[in-house]
Write a structure and sequence with these properties.
Helix content: 40-55%
Shape: elongated
Mean pLDDT: 89
Structural class: alpha/beta
Low-confidence stretches: 1-11
Number of helices: 12
CATH architecture of the largest domain: 3-Layer(aba) Sandwich
Radius of gyration: 26 Å
CATH superfamily of the largest domain: Response regulator
């Protein structure tokens, strides 16, 4: 029978700290601390006995004290910098897909997450995050146009990993896809289907998107097409995207027979705009996306796209971050993209 005011057995004082639990177990406080951390330094039977006593008396270690003792917070910052597109939302399907994978991997390894959407309106925005004392490490979802700020911090702050590109001489660790090759695959697919007047729908200020554009241009050059892709600027913020796509299609629609988009989200909105105008896909205009988000197989027609392996990428990001927390260096990783052949191109 238990006391309704306490989870400890009736008639027994509730254990409030390690010293009391150590006295109850007949060992010193250090042994209790190590046993509760499941340290192999303590004999298995002793560990089990101490852990059973802690459970019986509903004793929970003081997490703040543990963190002060170990100099670890148990929290990883997941940061989305939006220097090139300040109106973009965290609800963007790409962010949500990568964030979901990262959250699963981090929480399965015992870490909590602090999520931040950052508008970099001060030069030291990243310094403020890493020097807050609240985090054991930082994962950046994208580099945006903040390569210089990330490089500056990475020179002195080791546990930092970004999703994005790796440039020659780069200090910070970046995990991502070969965006140039992905763009080349997209362009080659459109050309193989008969497209000759290809547009790139998106924007090229972010380094990943710029490389995708350059990859499409390379495919067109390899095919001997006299002009590169027609750049049709579209913001990736969802509030304005459909109206901008519609305006660009209305202006350039008669000139183009293929569209390579900077992302699946742009491609899916493009399919909607083309359907509203009764423009046949892929008969009149071929469309290809980039990312292979789960929504890509739900469009009508199903979206041909370039796949980034976000599950593998997120695992690589977390693995690299843990290695850096432990004091090791980790190189950047560039994954090969894959053409997902479906119905729009």
């Amino acid at each position: 029978m238990t006391d309704p005011r306490s989870d400890a057995p009736k008639g027994e004082a509730r254990v409030r700290n390690i010293a009391e639990l150590a006295k109850l177990a007949g060992v010193n406080a250090g042994t209790v601390s190590r046993a509760l951390a499941d340290s192999p330094v303590v004999a298995l039977k002793t560990r089990q006995r101490i852990q059973a006593l802690a459970a019986k008396h509903n004793y929970r270690p003081n997490q703040m004290a543990q963190r002060l003792r170990t100099q670890r917070t148990g929290v990883i910052g997941v940061v989305v910098p939006l220097g090139h597109e300040q109106r973009q939302h965290l609800s963007d399907p790409f962010f949500m897909s990568l964030l979901g994978h990262l959250a699963d991997t981090l929480t399965e390894n015992g870490y909590d997450i602090m999520l931040s959407r950052v508008i970099p309106n001060a030069d030291d925005w990243l310094e403020r995050i890493v020097e807050s004392g609240m985090l054991d490490g930082v994962l950046l979802i994208g580099q945006s146009d903040q390569h210089g700020a990330i490089e500056r911090v990475a020179r002195t702050y080791r546990p930092l990993v970004a999703w994005g590109i790796h440039q020659a001489g780069q200090v910070h660790c970046a995990i991502g896809s070969d965006n140039f090759e992905g763009g080349r695959l997209a362009g080659a697919r459109l050309i193989a289907g008969g497209a000759r007047r290809i547009a790139f729908l998106g924007e090229t200020r972010a380094p990943e998107f710029r490389l995708r554009f350059e990859g499409v241009a390379a495919a067109m050059a390899e095919a001997g097409l006299p002009r590169g892709p027609l750049p049709l600027h579209v913001h990736i913020a969802s509030d304005d995207m459909e109206h901008e796509i519609a305006a660009q299609i209305d202006r350039a629609g008669a000139e183009i027979d293929g569209i390579a988009t900077a992302s699946d989200v742009i491609a899916m909105r493009t399919l909607r705009v083309l359907a509203d105008r009764a423009i046949d896909v892929p008969g009149r205009i071929r469309v290809i996306g980039f990312d292979d988000l789960p929504l890509a197989i739900q469009t009508v027609p199903r979206l041909t796209t370039i796949r980034q392996d976000l599950a593998r990428g997120s695992e690589a990001m977390v693995s690299a971050l843990f290695a850096r927390i432990a004091g090791d260096d980790t190189p950047s990783l560039q994954m090969e993209p894959q053409l997902m052949e479906r119905d729009t191109a």
